[in-house]
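Input sequence (245 aa), recorded before submission:
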Amino acid sequence: MPWRMFSIALGLLLAGLIALPADQSLAQRYGGNSYGSKERQRDHKPGEFDYYTLVLSWSPTHCAAQVKQRRNDTQCNRKPGQRGYAFVLHGLWPQYAKGYPERCWTDFKPFVPKRVINGMLDIMPSTGLIIHEYKKHGTCSGLRPDGYFGLSRNIYRKIKIPQRYVHPQKPQMVSPETLVDEFIAANSVIGLRPDMMAVTCGGPGNRLREVRICVSKDGNPQACGRNEDQRRLCSAKRMYVPPVR
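Predicted structure, token format:
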């Protein structure tokens, strides 16, 4: 009898210990700062953030890293005669001054209707990406899919892509500073400044990956927070810009 009681007690203790990591895992997934900061811990609530970052992805770099997935990727698996993609809209990310919210709880199912998806494919050419971006970032905007992607398109339209990046057929080498200067010159009308954007690079030859532009909640350019630290995102002196195929 004593041995049986000891076994039961031991089983309950182990059950309690096993349950603890599961609870911690849920807390890490849905709460706290994704940057791991202890300075600003709070629950992520839809609509409660400081600014947006519009993320433009350099499609040739993305596709070069998606060789195995190209068959099911409309962005990289082009049909004959279809024009290749250069800069495409990766997403519109709600940001804090430091860190960012993600996968916010909503009082509705974060389902993106097919008509909304179809309406974005010309500038965001991946159904999977559209669905992913809304679940991870759009749910924190405080907007439903129609409003979130409508705002994304409106901001995307405001940004003018410098001519040399519209549809380049030859590889290029460029410094992050030069690319920033070119975007500022092309977007002087909307008041774009160096502190309102950042460039990301990486991989073989420090390839151009993204251009990130910070905007207010109503879509006007504004100074970025600590998330867009250029030294962290791309410290290379020169980047390789693969051509559009």
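Checked by second reader. Residues 5-41 have pLDDT under 50 and may be disordered.
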